[in-house]
Design goal:
By secondary structure, this protein is mainly beta. It starts with a strand and ends with a strand.
């Protein structure tokens, strides 16, 4: 599962109606065959958005970049993280 949030507006209020999506690629920009980007994320409550990821099989030692984009009231916010995989699979 991938989760983002809680997402808040400029007043600090929880945002429950944003359009949130994630993109997952190898750090070098290569696509990951098991992932259909972008991935829509659903509001789960309290301003938190999530999605259950498909099984992803990558070699040990691969770096993965996850970018989450939230759009709300004409504003776009982006968060990007890099993960270094020590295990072989997600969701196993």
């Amino acid at each position: 599962m991938l989760a983002a949030g809680p997402i808040k507006d400029h007043n600090g209020d929880l945002v429950t109606t944003a359009v949130v999506s994630a993109t997952i690629v190898e750090r070098n920009g290569n696509a990951i065959p098991e992932v259909a980007n972008p991935i829509s994320m659903d509001h789960e409550g309290g301003g938190t958005y999530s999605v259950t990821l498909p099984p992803i099989d990558l070699p040990k030692g691969v770096s993965v970049e996850i970018e989450v984009v939230a759009e709300y009231a004409g504003t776009t916010a982006t968060s990007r993280e890099v993960l270094f995989l020590y295990d072989r699979k997600f969701n196993q």
